[in-house]
């Protein structure tokens, strides 16, 4: 992956993961308020998702797929590749992150539209995102399964 592409990939990760960390916690706190859905917070949360999390997700996905298709043998070959099975575990965790992101988005929209939401659910998503992200960082930095 060219250096500029790796930089864009990291910027996308920061936007995506940072936004999810912030929003899952923020919406979880918003849900627990006794006043119900606050319109100002609703606008803030929606804009944060659509202007921060989503562009970061697409940038991360686009640059990651570009790197994968640029030289698939390096990443996908378990025996011959530089990454071994580390990359396959990372892909599985990224898939979990994508599912968590979309599930969070769906639940956030439901909370905004119907006032239906539970703090524990948003905090659980927060924990899943954090755990997956930490494992990915350790896997990619250390190449433990290579």
TrEMBL record:
Q: Which cofactor does it need?
A: heme b
Q: In which pathway does it act?
A: Porphyrin-containing compound metabolism; protoporphyrin-IX biosynthesis; protoporphyrin-IX from protoporphyrinogen-IX: step 1/1
GO terms, biological process: protoporphyrinogen IX biosynthetic process
Q: What is its EC number?
A: 1.3.99.-
**Entry-linked InterPro entries:** HemJ-like
Q: Report membrane topology.
A: Multi-pass membrane protein
Question: In which broad location class does this protein mainly occur, judging by the first location in its UniProt entry?
Answer: membrane
List UniProt keywords, sorted A-Z.
Cell membrane, Heme, Iron, Membrane, Metal-binding, Oxidoreductase, Transmembrane, Transmembrane helix
| Pfam families the record matches | UPF0093 (PF03653)
Please state which protein family the record places this protein in: Belongs to the HemJ family.
Name this protein carries in UniProt = Protoporphyrinogen IX oxidase
Name the species this protein comes from. Persicimonas caeni
